[in-house]
Design brief:
- With 148 residues, the chain is α+β, with helices and mostly antiparallel strands.
- The protein is built from four helices and six strands.
- Strands 2-1-6-5-4-3 form a six-stranded mixed beta sheet.
- Strand 5 and strand 6 (118-125) form a beta hairpin.
- The protein is globular, with a radius of gyration of 16 Å.
Length: 148
């Protein structure tokens, strides 16, 4: 049922499938909830492969120094066969210069197929794609060299 799926997605978003951290920062996702060819769309990317998406998530954020929080309970639209989530996240990317991504909100719409699997995950962010990319390439802090 959609309510069971929403409950599982809620746990995956907040804690991860196996408690490794919300799946957006850890890749710890219940793969059996999604189609293998599920389409994952955010303002900077679109991927139509569950395994490619999961692998990308595993290397993006440092789960020890990042977070995901549910902003409100997930909502279900039985007619549209959609589940909607709102999360707040941020943290440190796993790049050599450890860029910090400031806290931002995501509105996530999951569309469910006739077999009860997620066929698409569409995200809208509270920051623009340009802002997100700019933070990716900005070191966490910069201090000018002192005159000694």
């Amino acid at each position: 049922s959609l309510s069971e799926l929403a409950s599982r997605l809620s746990r995956d978003l907040a804690e991860g499938a196996h408690g490794e951290g919300g799946y957006f920062i850890s890749g710890d996702i219940s793969t059996q909830l999604f189609r293998d060819d599920c389409t994952f769309v955010d303002p900077t990317n679109s991927v139509s492969s569950l395994s490619r998406y999961q692998n990308a998530l595993k290397i993006l954020f440092d789960p020890e120094r990042s977070y995901v929080q549910l902003v409100e309970p997930l909502t279900i639209d039985e007619n549209k066969k959609q589940i909607t989530a709102r999360i707040r996240s941020g943290g440190i990317l796993q790049l050599p210069w450890s860029p910090k991504i400031s806290s931002y909100e995501s509105l996530i719409v999951y569309t469910i197929d006739s077999n009860g699997l997620v066929e698409s995950q569409d995200q809208v962010w509270s920051i623009s794609a340009i802002e997100a990319l700019k933070e990716t390439f900005t070191p966490p802090s910069f201090s000018a060299p002192s005159d000694s």
